[in-house]
Amino acid sequence: MADNKRDYYEVLGVPRGASDDELKKAFRKLAKQYHPDLHPDDKECEAKFKEINEAYEVLSDKDKRAKYDQFGFAGVDPSYGAGQGGGFGGFGGFDDIGDIFESFFGGGFGGSSRRSANPNAPRRGGDIRANIILDFMEACKGKKTSVTVSRLEKCPECSGTGAQAGATPQTCPDCRGTGTVRVTTRTPFGAMQSTQVCSRCQGKGKIIDKPCTKCSGNGRVRKTVTREIEVPAGVDDGRTLRVAGEGDCGINGGPAGDLNISVTVRPDPMFERDGYDVWTEVPITFAQATLGDEVIVPTVDGKVKYNIPAGTQSGTVFRLRGKGIKKVNRPDKGDHYVKVSVEIPRDLTKEQEKLLREFDKAMENKNYTTRQSFFDKLKEKFK
After folding, report:
1. Whole-structure pTM over 0.85, yes or no?
2. How far is it, in rounded angstroms, from Cα 155 to Cα 2?
């Protein structure tokens, strides 16, 4: 990890005590702003988008966030700080705090997991990330789409062994296959021992005299692949879809990692989403609000008719049960809320003005209950 990395909270523009909702809101805003699909061939936007995704991936995970808050980048990436005096607070030659205690007290204080790990044991491959942008209706209904990702796959030339055909990896004579070696350092306090990654085999426990020319002995090669995925109906903006086994291939026969797909949903000019509920504002005329009328309401499933009752006030909200968005992997749906707004006519003709004034003159206070109540309160206050 590079030293010029920005603090994850700074990347998302949130305080360190930000809630999950604040993190999600900030991530959505920045992801939309810098998404590569909206800025083709813009390397700067692409780099910022990757930085935003990396920050959100850590801070949205409670365990990773706790480690990051306590140890910084070293808490979420053990390789951070390599070559700069050691990976734990600058104690050169020590892998972690366990090494320091072991050197003083002869072990028994936890110790590094690297020390006891078998370098030849199967290890799971890493997870990879991808991003897709959906229209509002595509998110509501679901769709099949494809994503192109770069991932590590088993080398086809050596079948993952890292050795040329006919060559066999040999056990490292320095670490005897453990991947680590003990180093004794003389200090004013006496001889101190620490465990380090074997420099001869780089922690693999084996040495390949004739490495595979295609993968340079790593056993894995990077490849760009395209995979078709099924986006479930009801997926929301900011959600991550997990496709099991489509990440980097494992090591020593370990399982592959997962493909995590971040979803961005474009806003719709007519619908507003709230969870699985949908909101729509429908303009109606003064006459429709006064007399009542049948209006057409657009929903995610098409147009429906709804009877507006007489005397409907502007801003009234009606609920259409089960007309919202289908819930992910469930048969039920949210509701559709219709907010009506009474549109006041403009640019009246002389004849229309005359008729309206006659109408208003013929009205009585009992027809305006809210208005009458207001003036009654006003009269009481200033009597």
Report:
1. no
2. 28
